[in-house]
Write a structure and sequence with these properties.
about 550 residues, elongated, alpha+beta
């Protein structure tokens, strides 16, 4: 069966916007005695009160919809077409000088038609699908009975086209149509341009348009998907098991962050949206799974920036019998492999500079970097607090004598060191006091076996040799609670301590920010550019929307 026949079989149409419209299937009649059942007309369409539209819907397009319906056709049919990916057709078309194997064959394509160019007896229009863009050619002689209805098509409409694959006189690959099917009438026209900050905001809000109207946007998200596939394959080849842990937590643990709070009605208790999956994943190491990973959606009730979104995607993995040195090896492999698989090489351009992600990457000590940039040791409280004052940082009143000092000390590090870390670079051996879940170094108890990965001054990953001493873990949890830090857990996770009391083997853990990694690999400066739907304020408040709602007819 050729593609033209399959087109007709799937759509019930052999020409026109739909020369013959398939009957709308009867989905069953309402039960007798139901007074609120919708009425049906002779075409079996449901009759509802007219709905209001947004300001984007053009009156001329709405009129065309009514014209199509009055002709007995459906501008939003229930059945699609069996279509070939455009990329496959482009690959098989060859050139006008050297035609490919499919030239002259009947093919079917489906996608969004961009602005058509009407020359009277001939119409050319670009058609885009998820794989690419191809030109369709509509000729009056081939579509004589349908031809007057070409005026009912507009840029942005979704159509299916069957025709012969070939080329124009100028050599452009073209599908010469013999059948056309309207798949969905666009009431809002496609944008002509996107530019400037204001329009970028619109792009984020209307990603459903941005993906096909803005060059390169779709490619970013295709690469993002590939990154996740590459990571999964790599870890599975290393014997890791992908797992799923709870999103609703009774205690906001595993990281220092302000959580989102919700309430479970049946249980009568508040729960927190996950800020990190760490403590559940390490419970699985206690349970003997030994190598686990999760690609998790995390939620933190904090500010927005080019690096931060309140919900974000993390890779977290844990491996028994490993330590932070093994996690360094995995970090390098994951990032380098993603770069090679997604971009074809290790060099990337990000924020105006070029970076080479080829391994191995250098290591620098946290303590050494702190000393270089601030002229004092990290634990010299008087000098560090003086430096914090110079930098204009917020200093708690009790910072000189309490545990609050360590947060201020790390604020100084972040303010003076991080932006200068071009990378890729491992910053290793963090002060133990700011690493409540990491094991202290056996060589220097002042530091923990922890590292962070930096590229272009941005943290990409974080890893520990995991603390597995239950008594020490309980002590650190109690210190966190006593600090009353709003970013620290409000209570001790005694169930996690209980798990450690059964014995957790030596282990290494690693977290990599997927959003930030994709930013680097695709050269996107803001995290919003790698999130399909970034967090934004609503355009209209519920109160304004209610005041603007149309008044029901009496």
């Amino acid at each position: 069966m050729n593609e033209g026949s399959r087109f007709a079989r799937r759509t019930g149409s052999t020409s026109s916007l739909a020369a013959t419209v398939p009957p709308i299937p009867d989905r069953g009649h309402p039960r007798e005695g139901t007074s609120n059942a919708p009425r049906r007309d002779s075409r079996a369409r449901l009759l509802y009160p007219p709905a209001s539209m947004t300001e984007l819907a053009h009156k001329d397009r709405l009129a065309k919809v009514e014209t199509i319906r009055q002709a007995g056709e459906d501008p939003y049919p229930a059945r699609g077409v069996v279509a070939r990916p455009i990329a496959d057709l482009l690959a098989a078309a060859g050139t006008a000088e050297k035609p490919g194997p499919m030239v002259g064959e009947a093919v079917t394509v489906a996608g969004r038609m961009l602005q058509p160019r009407d020359f009277g007896k001939l119409v050319f229009a670009p058609l885009v699908d998820r794989t690419g863009r191809i030109q369709v050619g509509l000729q009056r002689d081939e579509l004589s009975s349908w031809w007057p209805k070409r005026k009912l098509l507009d840029g942005g409409d979704l159509i299916g086209v069957t025709g012969r694959l070939g080329h124009t006189q100028k050599g452009e690959t073209t599908v010469w149509a013999t059948e056309v099917q309207l798949l969905a009438k666009a009431l809002a026209p496609p944008p002509e341009k996107w530019h400037g900050l204001h329009d970028k905001e619109i792009r984020y809000r209307r990603r459903y348009v941005d993906l096909w109207a803005s060059e390169g946007v779709k490619d970013v998200f295709v690469k993002r998907s590939k990154v996740l596939s590459v990571i999964r394959r790599l870890l599975e080849s290393e014997g890791y098991l992908e797992v799923e842990t709870p999103t609703l937590h009774p205690i906001a643990g595993g990281a220092a962050a302000r959580p989102f709070v919700t309430h479970h009605n049946a249980l009568g208790m508040d729960l927190y949206l996950r800020i990190a999956p760490e403590l559940y994943l390490k419970r699985l190491i206690v349970g003997g799974l030994e190598r686990v990973f999760e690609v998790s959606r995390n939620f933190r009730n904090e500010g927005l920036s080019v690096r931060h979104n309140p919900e974000f995607t993390m890779l977290e993995l844990y491996e028994a019998q490993a330590d932070y040195r093994r996690m360094m090896e995995l970090s390098e492999r994951i990032v380098e492999t993603c770069a090679r698989e997604v971009n074809g090489g290790t060099k990337v351009k990000f924020r105006g500079k070029e970076y080479d992600l080829a391994t191995p990457w250098p290591r620098r000590s946290y303590l050494e970097l702190f000393r270089e940039k601030n002229g004092c040791e990290f634990d010299d409280r008087r000098k560090v607090l003086s430096r914090a004052k110079e930098l204009g940082l917020e200093i708690p009143a009790e910072a000189s004598t309490s545990e609050a000092y360590w947060k201020t000390m790390n604020d100084v590090f972040e303010s003076t060191v991080e932006d200068s870390l071009a990378g890729p670079l491992f910053v290793v051996d963090y002060p133990a006091e700011i690493c409540p879940l990491a094991k202290q170094s056996p060589l220097d108890p002042r530091v923990a076996e922890r590292f962070e990965v930096f590229i272009a001054g941005m943290e990409i990953g974080n890893a520990f040799t995991e603390l597995n001493d239950p008594k020490e873990q309980a002590r650190r949890f109690q210190e966190q609670v006593a600090s009353k830090d709003p970013e620290a857990p409000g209570e001790v996770d005694w169930d996690y301590v209980n798990a450690l009391e059964y014995g957790m083997p030596p282990a290494g853990g690693l977290g990599i920010g997927i959003d930030r990694l994709v930013m680097v690999l695709t050269g996107q400066e803001s995290i919003r550019d790698v999130l399909l739907f970034p967090a934004m304020r609503p355009e209209r408040t519920p109160e304004k929307a209610e005041s603007e709602a149309p008044t029901p007819a009496p």
